[in-house]
């Protein structure tokens, strides 16, 4: 069977996305065909376009998908045609980390999601003019109106939920919120410092507002983002372009340091400052990804007072458990995701990417209504 689709192909680094006809492979037993409603544009997609992430090109990106199931493979049990779903990362399901409830740390995470451009057996999920196109990006490649996704990356959600709003939950929003709720888990009375007020950092702020944190401090260079951080729950904001962030945090805590910190910018300089701001027993989560091989100098004796530095991928979440919880919080009005999202039509994908790179919008979301 031949399944035609319209997809945005990125032919090379620094090139524009080109919307064109492609063909989807037939679903294998553990795969699902999803008709897309919306897809978020994430910094990881833009990182591939900028050449910072070695995903093979030409290819179809997109990894924050939301849509309706069209067809399921013979072994799929978690969804049926007609189900409304969110798409996220995939995992092997059999390694020690997957089995212990940490699929974001699957031993094959990079090959399954980020680097291969194909299934693990090297077969293509997308072809054009009879030739394979690199796809299977986070096991979905959701910059297309039809997507072939791994069942392990598919999460059924409330059919009344607004998929056009919820699409970004699959990666960036899940990462920021999960970093706070699943990893750092600030106790009542905690002080959490968030470095960077992009979509990941602001998602962390919204999650922190649901936690026991009594002080939430946000650092960024852009005053408008700091104002939004206040709207979302920050108790204090610091423009780190005009104020020394470390000094400000020490002053805000009477010299004690913060109990929790989250670095979302990918700057090693910022990561070092975040570590220096920790109180004894403080925890620092690192989300931002600098260039491969980047290092941060840490004073070992400083760490011996119980301070911890933790790397975080995808908020250490199990999507099928965490994403429905976030959907409920959005629907209850307790997680105001709409304040981050700017909608675009799918054919405006290059405008959306440019606006995100320029910092004009926080989270562009592509809508596919004009292709159905």
What's the story with the biggest beta sheet?
7 strands, mixed
| DSSP summary: helix tally | 12
In what range is the share of β-strand residues? Answer: 25-35%
Order of helices and strands: EEEHEEEHHEEEEHHEHEHEHEHEHEHEHE
List low-pLDDT spans. Answer: none
Q: What's the total count of β strands?
A: 18
Helix content: 25-40%
Which structural category do the helix and sheet elements fall into?
Answer: alpha/beta
Based on CA inertia axes, which overall geometry fits?
globular
Average pLDDT, all residues: 95
Distance between the termini: 20 Å
What is the rounded Rg?
20 Å
Give the SSE map.
Blueprint: E1 3-10, E2 17-24, E3 31-40, H1 43-49, E4 59-60, E5 65-72, E6 84-87, H2 96-99, H3 109-115, E7 126-128, E8 131-133, E9 146-150, E10 154-156, H4 163-166, H5 172-184, E11 191-195, H6 199-208, E12 215-220, H7 223-232, E13 236-239, H8 245-252, E14 258-263, H9 268-276, E15 278-286, H10 300-303, E16 308-311, H11 319-331, E17 341-345, H12 349-357, E18 363-367
Parallel strand pairs: 11-12, 11-14, 12-13, 14-15, 15-16, 17-18
Antiparallel strand pairs: 1-2, 1-4, 2-7, 3-5, 3-9, 3-18, 5-6, 6-10, 7-8
């Amino acid at each position: 069977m031949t399944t035609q689709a319209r997809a945005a192909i990125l032919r090379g680094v620094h090139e524009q996305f080109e919307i064109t006809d492609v063909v989807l492979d037939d679903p294998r037993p553990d795969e699902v065909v999803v008709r897309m409603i919306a897809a978020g544009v994430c910094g990881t997609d833009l990182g591939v376009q900028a050449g910072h992430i070695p995903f093979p090109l030409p290819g179809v990106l997109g990894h924050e998908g939301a849509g309706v199931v069209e067809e399921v493979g013979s072994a799929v049990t978690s969804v049926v045609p007609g189900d409304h779903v969110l798409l996220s990362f995939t995992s092997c399901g059999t390694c020690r980390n997957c089995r212990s409830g940490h699929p974001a740390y699957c031993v094959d995470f990079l090959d399954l999601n980020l680097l291969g451009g194909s299934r693990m057996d090297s077969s293509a999920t997308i072809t054009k003019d009879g030739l394979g196109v690199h796809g299977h990006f986070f096991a979905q490649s959701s910059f297309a109106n039809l997507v072939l996704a791994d069942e392990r990356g598919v999460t059924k959600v409330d059919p009344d939920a607004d998929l056009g709003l919820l699409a970004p939950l699959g990666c960036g929003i899940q990462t920021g919120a999960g970093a706070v709720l699943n990893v750092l888990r600030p106790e009542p009375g905690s002080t959490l410092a968030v470095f960077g007020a992009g979509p990941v950092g602001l998602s962390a702020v919204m999650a922190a507002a649901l936690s026991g944190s009594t002080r939430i401090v946000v650092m960024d260079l852009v005053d408008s983002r700091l104002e939004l951080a206040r709207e979302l729950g920050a108790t204090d904001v610091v423009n780190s372009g005009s104020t020394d962030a470390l000094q400000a945090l020490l002053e805000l805590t009477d010299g004690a340091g913060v109990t929790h910190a989250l670095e979302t910018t990918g700057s090693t300089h910022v990561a070092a400052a975040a570590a220096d701001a920790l109180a004894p027993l403080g925890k620092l989560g690192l989300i931002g990804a600098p260039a491969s091989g980047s290092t941060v100098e840490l004073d070992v004796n400083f760490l011996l007072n119980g301070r911890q530095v933790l790397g975080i991928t995808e908020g250490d979440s199990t999507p099928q458990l965490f994403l429905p919880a976030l959907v409920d919080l959005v629907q209850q009005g307790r997680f105001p995701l709409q304040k981050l999202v700017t909608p675009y039509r799918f054919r405006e994908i290059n405008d959306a990417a440019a606006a995100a790179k320029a910092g004009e919008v926080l989270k562009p979301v592509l809508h596919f209504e004009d292709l159905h």
